[in-house]
Structures are given as structure tokens and as C-alpha cells.
Amino acid sequence: MNANWQEFLRASGARIDQDQVTDFGDAAGELAAARDATIVAPLSHLGLLELNGPDAASFLHNQLTSDVRHLAEGSAQHSAWCSAKGRMLASFLLLHCGPDYVLQLSADLLPFIHKRLSMFVLRSRLSINDRSGEHQVIGVAGPQAESALRTAGLPVPAAPLTIAATGTGLVVRLDDRRFELIASLDATPDWWRQLQGQARPAGTAAWQWLDIQAGVPLITEQTKEEFVPQMAGLEQLGAVSFRKGCYPGQEIVARTQYLGKVKRHLYRAHCASPMTAGQTIHSAGSPQQPCGMVANAAPAPAGGHDALAIIQESFAAAGGLRLGNPGGAAIDVEPVVAPAATL
User: Fold this and answer.
1) pTM of model > 0.90
2) From 3.30.420.40, 2.40.30.160, 2.70.70.10, 3.40.50.300, which CATH number describes the 229-335 domain?
């Protein structure tokens, strides 16, 4: 997180731990507001890579799982980058902004992805730049989110996964109640001041809980190379094209789809004990090895923790799941059949 932005947030009441905004002094109240009211949250867990140059679209199309060539200007789409074994190295929200493309991903993966992507540029005419220090990401969510944006003098994109540009940043509509703002560093404090008059400031965990409710997983350092895209439900988010040409891991991703061999699926999970990304999930029916893994987790407004988890279908249906080891805390799960939103 940029030092100036961090200083501004602290002055606004934020409590920050390891570059993450934990809360603004009332974590429980902020979670309740995320569920019932309108919030504004600094999304310090996300980083930004910008690709520009005449070959940016074709380069991304040949690397990512989504159909980049048909992504219209002013639009966004979900995507992922896989290893040769079809396992996700990262998941993205990909933005097409004028001639440029922006990859939004988990901040803890940004240095690795930046370096690794750059290795494949070769003779392609493009550059890849880390813009996380120059721009900040803010989330606005809730029944009055549109009103908050308009009151702040910001545009409101009409449809999900569309983008409205301003002179100092971008507004991305995720769904009917959630927006992301990508603002230049100079503009971010003013945007925040305007928005907090209409929305309650909340820590990053409140936004992460909303992602879980929306059924939108985020690959992080703890889950890198653990899942093929279909396990995490990315095809339901439009993040996987089965009509495009080759990309890393494409053979395995396509074979998994057409042979119907996906035995692990995305579930929403609840546990009375804290859950974290990368924790294993166990079943009495298979005590020798895990049957699943937590992808993302956050404190729940009603207590305990909620998560998105990838679990072997047969064990999820049987119940009796445990966190961390066969004798761990009990976990309740429900399948993510159709995501409620598209982040």
C-alpha cells in the first residue's frame, strides 16, 4: 500500500496490519453494514498490472483462459493464468481501458506474476507495468451505492462488468450493488471523502465477505497452483473460453471440461472457528488425506467465519467435514450453483 494513502487512511480511523486495513474501529459493525447497508472499503489486498502496446490484446489472449480478443473497450471480464498442468497461477479481473489492459489480482502474487508474464513477452510489442503504487482500488457496495457515486460526482456504469472513465480514474460496475473505483493516487483521498458521506467506511475483510457471498474466488499465494479453473467455478463467471486457441494449460482445462472429470467444486462454507486461505478440509470418510481446501475466507456478520472452498463433491454431500485435520472444527457447506454476482 502506498505510504501516503496509508497515512490518509490512518488519519481517517483505519487500523492497518501488514498493509491490510483490518477495520475502522468497529469490525463487527462494519461487517453488519456490508450485509445490510452501504459501505466504502479500501481494497488493499488487490494489485494492478497495466499492459500497453499494439500486441497487448493478442499477448493476453494467448496467455489467459478468457477470450481477450472479443473483450470490448470499456468492459471487464474474469480470467486466469494457468501453469502447463492447467493449475491456476492467478485469477484476474481484466479491464479493457482504451488501448490498454489492466490486470487486477491478489497483491501478494503481483511480483511473481509480473516477473513470470514478462518472461513470455519476447518480441511482442508491449510493456507490463506495476501500477499499484500510482493507483488505489476502493470498493463501494450496498443498496445506496449508485447514489453514493452520483453524490460524489462519479459516473455510474449501466451494466455489470462495464467501465466508466473519469479524468482521474475508472469506475467498474461489478453487479447491481457493487462497484470498484480505480483512482489515481492524487484523486483517491478526495473520492474517499466524498463517498464516506454516503457510505460507511469498512475494512477490507467486509469486502472479502461480499466476494464470498457473490461466489467469486481469488487465487492468492496460499492457493497458487492448487486448482484448475473449473474447480473454482470460473467458467460460470465467463473466465474460461472453450472456443479460443491454445494457452498454457489449455489441453488439460479443455479435457477436464469435455470428459466431465471435475470431482471438486466450489462451495460456500461456514465454521465457528477462523478459516484462512490454503487450510485443508477433511472428512471422516477419508481420514488419510484432505478432501478440500479453503480458497478465501472472512469473518461473518453473524459470527464465525465464511469461506469459499473447493471440496470433493462426494465428501461434501456426505457432510461431517472438518477444518485442518479430521478432528478439527466442524464445517457446514452449500454448493455455489450460480454466482449471485460477477466480480
Assistant:
1) yes
2) 2.40.30.160
